Amino acid sequence: MYRRRRIPLPLLGALGLLLGLGAAALISLPRVTDLTPPPGSSGALAAPAVTIVFSQDMQRETVEARFAVSPERRGSFHWSDRRMTFTPEDPWAEGEDVAVTLAAGATSLRGLPMLGATRWTFSIGAARLAYLWPAGGPADIYLWSPAGGEPARLTQTLGGVIDFRPTPDGTRLVFSAWDDGATAIRVLDIAKGTTEVLHRCDPEAECRNAALSPDGTLLTYEEHAPQSGGQILARVWVKPLPGGRPALVAAEDHPTSQPTWSSRGWLGLYDHALMAYAIYDRLDPAHVAFYVPNELGDPMVWSPDGLAFVFPEMVFVPESVEADTEAPPQFYSHLRRVAAADGSAVDLSGNEGFLVEDAGPAFSPDGRWIAFSRRGLAPETWTPGRQIWRMRSDGAESLQLTDIASLNHAAVTWSPDGTRIAYMVFDQLNPTEPAVMSWRWIDRTDGGLIVVPESDPAAGGYAPAWIP
After folding, report:
1. In this predicted model, what pLDDT tens digit does every residue of 156-183 receive, in sequence order?
2. 264: closest CA among 275, 280, 278?
3. CA-CA distance, 39 to 49, in Å (whole number)?
């Protein structure tokens, strides 16, 4: 007979210690705790921000070096504590499957490696378009897709939404709305349907035109405050988030408006006292990067890469000695592109003296094209309404996209994949007719009217904006 041999207690203790140490080591290794868009999800935005959350603080360069997406896209990384966000420069196509890989080997700040790779996929949904409705009363934000279906109501406010802007990644909408006799600035998470108050405005003033900085840490907005004599003073404020104290961006006695962030974190606004655009590379009135004089004061738009901005500029044609002094002065409005690096400017509309009225520029998502509204000012080209044109971002290859002389086309916005535009249409010969929203393919094929609730014809919607 064989006697069962007992494992010595010291050996059992050693084995237990080794197993405990191994388990502790595995638990202490960094791991992924959350992924966005969720694995296997469908209907993601065309330019979704891909987010990975880690259990530990990471050596960021080791994570970024092991990150990849397919189809491949260039993009930028942003970190907030243990959360890494990758934002692609160019959108994916509707219906496309996107695969994300984080290879093994990324290390934490303590030098511990991630042992396994993380892989997941999601698919891109149909493009969606947000707008305000109705124009004749308190408005709310609605969401609609050319793929079909009725528009969905995103907000239910008591006093109505004043205006809104999508965040750069398209996941949220920042909007100003009336609430119990005052205005408040809120942010809406589109997927979750939840809202958060970012700022409550002085009851005596009105806040509007709010926007978040690319990293989400700063909120800018206009405050319209009543003054003596019935005047209104508009000034741009900036508020650190969360819960910071608002401060004026420009000098206290300077009326300012139209705050606009670039993708690189520069801020542009219009200074009415100086009649110029002020470009800030940091929010300090004593450290403006440069000014660009402009008497028209229309909104400026940044290129997607943040390296330049475009705006319309009005120029009056000098009168000749023989000119009829009773005739109205001749003018033209050209689009100018200004480089953020040195302030150098280029006329995109054509040669000096080319008689057109160009306005409302909008960059395509990839930055290669600009859509805008144009009306000829020469007798042989004049029309009651502006038509939509598009050109290269350097002004080349201009092409007319609409051609109905009596209709004025404005408020152009690009779809996330750059294949479509949406815009407002006003009948100049019937000014009492309500405006409508329409869309078309960039190859000039008409798409049709944008559907709004409870209206036939589809009228009363305004401020269309594609969700990136």
Report:
1. 998 999 999 999 878 899 999 998 889 9
2. 280
3. 14
| Chain-centre distance for alpha carbon 353 | 34
Decide if 411 contacts 129 (C-beta within 8 A). Answer: no
The average pLDDT across 342-349 equals: 92
C-alpha 313/C-alpha 270 separation (Å) is: 13
Q: How far apart are CA 116 and CA 55, in angstroms?
A: 14
Measure the CA angle with vertex 437, ends 432 and 439; round to 5°. 145
In three-state form (DSSP H/G/I as H, E/B as E, the rest C), the secondary structure along 38-81 is CCCCCCECCCCCEEEEECCCECHHHHHCCEEEECCCCEEEEEEC
Whole-angstrom distance, CA of residue 275 vs CA of residue 96? 46
**What single string gives the DSSP state of each residue in 395-419?**
S-S-EE----TTEEEEEEEE-TTSS
Residue identified by tokens 């407002």 is 424
What are the angstrom distances between the C-alpha of 310 and each of 34, 303, 349, 355, 410?
Answer: 39, 8, 11, 19, 16
CB 220 within 8 A of CB 267: yes
8 Å CB contact between 73 and 90: yes
The answer to whether the CB of 126 falls within 8 A of the CB of 145 is: yes
**Using an 8 Å Cβ cutoff, are 328 and 316 in contact?**
no
pLDDT at 131: 97
> What residue has token string 């409705």?
133
